[in-house]
Amino acid sequence: MAIFSDLELSAPEVISKGIFPILILTSIADQERMKDYYSKNPEHPFNSLNLKENQILAACCSYYTDIPIGSKFDVVFSGRDVENFLNVTAVLEYASYNRSFEVDMVPNSITSVVAIIDFPEGKPEILNKLRLENEKRDFNTYDELYLTEKKVLDKILKEFDKKKEL
Q1: Model pTM?
Q2: Which phi and psi angles does 150 have, rounded to 5°?
Q3: Residue 51, Cβ neighbours under 10 Å: how many?
């Protein structure tokens, strides 16, 4: 089984091999907590947040590159099982950094951003592997998910094939 963290590529390797963009989903955000937090700022869009049926509010981050709002992804995979990816349609629609600043991208950082992600063709079942924000981390139950493009996934799988040959 291909585990994404086993690649352990350095930033120059990731960039030179074109293994980006990858939007890392770490948990599903707690909407009620968000509304309570933002109620102190009546102008913030989260005060009137009503997600559509095919949208999620997720904590996420990006390594090695900024990912602008409007970016589209066509593949999702679990960090512990890269080879069993799913073809999806997903769009990054909104991002709020540090839960208070609206931004036009998910910045290149390990710092979490809260984002609205739309799955126009329906939310895939794999999203159930994401931890709910208010639950304890349990790596036996939950996993991080990775949204990317098929061409990026092909490069990742090629890197796993190289490791197998060693």
Answers
A1: 0.87
A2: -55, -40
A3: 12
